[in-house]
């Protein structure tokens, strides 16, 4: 067999952890572990949501042979040169798993490689890309018939954990068993600033009514514990006052609040087996909602607006304008006002279903109001079961990584 190079293009923390991880594993299962025959490289492009730890995460995957950080991307895109002067084999393929879909077009031409694009919602450059692995058939509904054979439905890459972590019996009655509640405030400062104090305040309220309830935070791999704890400290985060939250201290691997509530910090990644045992989760918008939806875990999605310019994590041009030095705050307030007014559905399961399966709470949220909603659901498990069943029906087809890997193998050996 002619030695092969597989180049994966990706960008942000969500894509690296939920797309790249299952795909490289599936590629090794299909193509083998002989690195002299099949080499897997990951090149990252800049992302407004990046934390700086994406390179280390990609390097931690045993299936990957080499990784280039995003700061060297433009040099590679323009001139075809990597920072470490990588050599490339004569036969290879470029797989797009995040960024701009024009990147595989340019890089595939430079290297003389075939191209495969994973497309969630939109597929572009139909005449230049060899194959599209799409999440749902709707992605190809407006595509010209002459390109129809380029499209293959593989499903949603974020559902890879669903089969292995299927919920058995986490939805319990608080009168007889212990409820476990997961807290997912996000990984970026814009979300953590409000999300951490709000969610911890909600946890305190629930715990005051149901003391047997347990809480944990699955810490994002891009976040360290001291940084996370700073958002729970009134000295470092003035928004704790907006939620009447008195603060928490980092003790061992726990956040201990002023009321004595102990919230465990779990650094296992991915934390699917932990999340699948939750009765319900409190989460912000983003990839978290897709993963919880894939696991069929009931959730309440929170987007507090106590400070409009604190939320600067929108995608594309809105995110760029909101983060401009000097004028960014004014742009952020205007953009967030407009975005929230025209928000539509925010959680991925709701977007999939085009209906509000899980509650989305937007506004000047307070702990007691959200806490009462959680208590109502816990005290009426049939409501949680109904949410879980709807999540299962909305999550679609699994096995996307394997199907994508098979598609890549077919392209390589045509």
Would you write up a description of this structure?
- The model has no long low-confidence stretch (mean pLDDT 87).
- This protein has an eight-stranded mixed sheet, sandwiched between helices.
- The chain contains 14 helices and 15 strands.
- A hairpin with a 2-residue loop joins strand 10 (248-251) and strand 11 (254-257).
- The protein has helices at 13-31, 54-59, 73-79, 102-111, 189-209, 225-230, 272-275, 287-294, 316-322, 328-341, 348-353, 367-379, 381-394, 400-412; strands at residues 4-10, 38-44, 66-68, 91-96, 114-119, 131-134, 151-153, 180-184, 214-218, 248-251, 254-257, 262-266, 280-283, 299-304, 360-363.
- With 414 residues, the protein is of the alpha/beta class.
- 36% of the residues lie in helices and 18% in strands.
Number of strands: 15
User: Which value, in Å, is the CA radius of gyration?
Assistant: 22 Å
Give the uncertain stretches in residue-range form: none
Into which percentage range does the β-strand content fall?
A: 15-25%
Helicity, as a percent range = 25-40%
Q: What structural class do the secondary elements suggest? A: alpha/beta
Write down the overall geometry: globular
Mean pLDDT: 87
What is the terminal separation in angstroms?
13 Å
Strand order of the largest sheet: 10-11-12-9-8-13-14-15
Main sheet makeup:
8 strands, mixed
Tally of contiguous helical segments: 14
Order of secondary-structure elements: EHEHEHEHEEEEHEHEEEHEHEHHHEHHH
């Amino acid at each position: 067999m002619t030695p092969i190079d597989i180049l994966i293009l990706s960008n942000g923390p969500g894509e690296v952890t939920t797309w790249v991880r299952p795909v490289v594993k599936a590629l090794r299962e299909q193509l083998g572990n002989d690195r002299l025959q099949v080499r897997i490289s990951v090149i990252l492009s800049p992302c407004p949501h990046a934390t700086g730890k994406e390179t280390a995460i990609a390097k931690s995957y045993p299936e990957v042979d080499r990784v280039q950080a995003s700061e060297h991307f433009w040099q590679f895109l323009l001139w075809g040169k990597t920072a470490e002067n990588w050599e490339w084999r004569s036969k290879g393929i470029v797989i797009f798993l995040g960024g701009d879909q024009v990147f595989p077009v340019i890089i595939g031409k430079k290297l003389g490689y075939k191209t495969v694009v994973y497309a969630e919602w939109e597929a572009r450059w139909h005449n230049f890309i060899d194959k599209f692995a799409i999440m749902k058939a709707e992605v190809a509904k407006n595509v010209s018939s002459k390109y129809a054979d380029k499209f293959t439905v593989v499903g949603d890459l974020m559902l890879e954990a669903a089969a292995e972590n299927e919920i058995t019996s986490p939805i319990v009655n608080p009168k007889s068993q212990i409820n476990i509640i997961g807290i997912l405030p996000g990984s970026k400062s814009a979300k953590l600033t409000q999300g951490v104090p709000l969610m911890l305040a909600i946890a305190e309220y629930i715990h005051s009514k149901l003391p047997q309830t347990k809480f944990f935070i699955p810490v994002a791999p891009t976040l360290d514990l001291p940084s996370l704890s700073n958002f729970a400290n009134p000295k470092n985060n003035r928004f704790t006052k907006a939620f009447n939250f008195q603060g928490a201290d980092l003790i061992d691997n726990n956040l201990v609040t002023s009321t004595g509530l102990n919230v465990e910090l779990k650094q296992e990644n991915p934390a699917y087996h932990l999340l699948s045992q939750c009765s319900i989760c409190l989460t912000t918008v983003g990839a978290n909602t897709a993963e919880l939806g894939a696991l069929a875990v009931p959730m309440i999605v929170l987007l507090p607006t106590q400070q409009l310019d604190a939320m600067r994590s929108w995608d594309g041009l809105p995110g760029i304008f909101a983060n401009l030095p000097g004028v960014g705050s004014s742009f952020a307030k205007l953009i967030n006002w407009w975005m929230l007014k025209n928000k539509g559905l925010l959680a991925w399961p709701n977007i999939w279903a085009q209906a509000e399966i899980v509650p989305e709470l937007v506004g000047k949220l307070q702990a007691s109001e959200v806490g009462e909603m959680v208590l109502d659901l816990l005290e009426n498990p049939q409501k949680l079961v109904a949410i879980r069943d709807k999540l299962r029906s909305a999550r679609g087809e699994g096995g996307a990584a394997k199907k994508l890997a098979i598609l890549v193998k077919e392209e390589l050996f045509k």
